[in-house]
Design a protein that fits this description.
Layout: E1 3-5, E2 17-19, H1 28-46, E3 56-58, H2 59-62, E4 74-76
Antiparallel strand pairs: 1-2, 3-4
Length: 85
């Protein structure tokens, strides 16, 4: 698992930074939304022929209540076993 992100205000940056750690501050309802989004992403990747490193899904496109003050979460498909430990 790898996590990437941008510095606040640098949404147009070419390459995201690899993060060592992430912290999520979520309500119980938001945890349910996150779980549902991740499960939906898994199902959609399993049902298609995703391209590793390019196929991705955005929380902002999936969650009807998402707004511009919320952070976006992007799930990028990676081939199982492709990463070195």
């Amino acid at each position: 698992m790898k996590a990437f992100g941008y510095m606040r205000g640098e949404q147009e940056a070419e390459q995201p930074l690899e993060l060592q750690e992430i912290a999520l501050s979520l309500s119980a309802d938001e945890i349910e939304v996150l779980i549902a989004f991740l499960q939906n992403s898994k199902m959609r990747f399993a049902a298609s022929c995703p391209t590793p490193g390019q196929s991705h899904l955005h929380l902002r496109d999936w969650w009807k209540d998402w707004n511009t003050t919320d952070s976006d979460l992007i799930v990028v498909y990676d081939e199982p076993g492709a990463r070195k430990q």
